[in-house]
Amino acid sequence: MKNQIIKLNQNENPLGPGPMVMATLHEEMAQVSLYPTADGEPLSQALAEHYDLPSERIILSNGSGSISILLLIAQQLTAQGGSVMFSGQGYISFLFRNLKASGILDSPFTIIPKNEHRHDLAAMAKQVMTTDARVIFIENPDNPTGTWISHDLLADFLMHIPEHVIVVVDEAYSEYARYMLGADYPDTISLQKKHSNLMTVRTFSKAYGLAGLRIGYAISSTEIRGMLNKKRVKLCITSPALAAACVALKDKDHLKLTLETNSASMKYLENSFEEMHIDYISSAANFIMFSAGDNTHSLFEKLKQRNILIFPLVAYELPSKLRVTLGLAEENKAFIKNLREILPGL
Q1: In-domain check, residue 1
Q2: In what order do the strands lie in the sheet with 166-170?
């Protein structure tokens, strides 16, 4: 793999889309002169069938993956007042702080510190009683730590949250987590039957390998969907993206291969880190966060010089940590080989 860039910094699927999706995209290119459906109905119907839900409970993204949905939720559900709440040192904290700084996000927010790299649900439940919080955002699994909340913990947490407060669970890595954790991973769609204030946000960017097509969606009550659709921009998901997502849902074999590959990569990196006495956080996603202490920046730069890209977490307020995406077997081996060569000299 000499001179080839090994890209392990953005949590992409190293296998890419499956053959069924690739064939569909090739066919769809002949139709790009035509506008897509305004409401993305083919995908809404496909998701409804996939989850055995009415399509009236599904909200599609505005063409920028789940980011547009998260922003839409924060803005629209606090339009009449109230604030949002989320954990610090995570993706949503990073995203919303940047959107706030750029003037895109108007909603005030409360940041709850994590407890040993995990969402502090008890602190959230306590704080929501003393603030004007209207929406709580939770990543599960968390990014960049990979930690997760179990089904029982989430169910108990929801019992302590007032009905007027919307709980949004960002499940970008749900397919990986479900494969690794089984029934311990929350079934948020099922939990919505008891908690109408619960929302599930998912994406096609990770396990389905469609990050470049920017498709996300949410599942909620019809009431919440109605509130959000008032401000949702139409005609934003391209026809190729809609078609690819519909087919990706049907390609069970490629998803299975993705999850098996990820599981094997996880075992390899965990074993390698343990052999090298590197502290890491057990993850239920397609990445691992590990510690490099005072050598974090030097290690990142030296790997970069060798064309291996991983993710520094300074912007996530974790300056002594790095995150590495699980790649193909040969990419993982190249990463560990170079790590072994670099670390003794730091």
Answers
A1: no
A2: 58-60, 216-219, 198-203, 166-170, 133-139, 83-87, 109-112
Same domain, 50 and 149: yes
Q: Which residues pair with 219 in a beta bridge?
A: 58, 200
The backbone torsions φ and ψ at residue 8, rounded to the nearest 5 degrees and listed phi first, read: -120, 45
Phi-psi region of 317 (alpha: psi -120 to 50; beta: other; left: phi over 0): left
What would the two tokens of residue 151 be?
């089904």
Stretch 172-194: mean pLDDT, rounded? 98
Here the CATH number for the domain that contains residue 29 is 3.40.640.10
Q: Which domain holds residue 112?
A: 19-250
- Model pTM? 0.96
Four-residue CA torsion sign, 238, 242, 248, 249: positive
Retrieve residue 261's tokens: 């590959």
Distance from the first to the final alpha carbon of the chain: 24
In terms of phi and psi (left: phi > 0; alpha: psi -120 to 50; beta: otherwise), the region of 232 is beta
Distance CA 122, CA 119 (A): 9
Q: What band does 231 get if pLDDT is binned at 50, 70 and 90?
A: confident
**2 to each of 36, 329, 343, how far by Cα in Å?**
42, 15, 20
Residue 56 in domain: yes
As a whole number of Å, the CA-based R_g of the chain is: 20
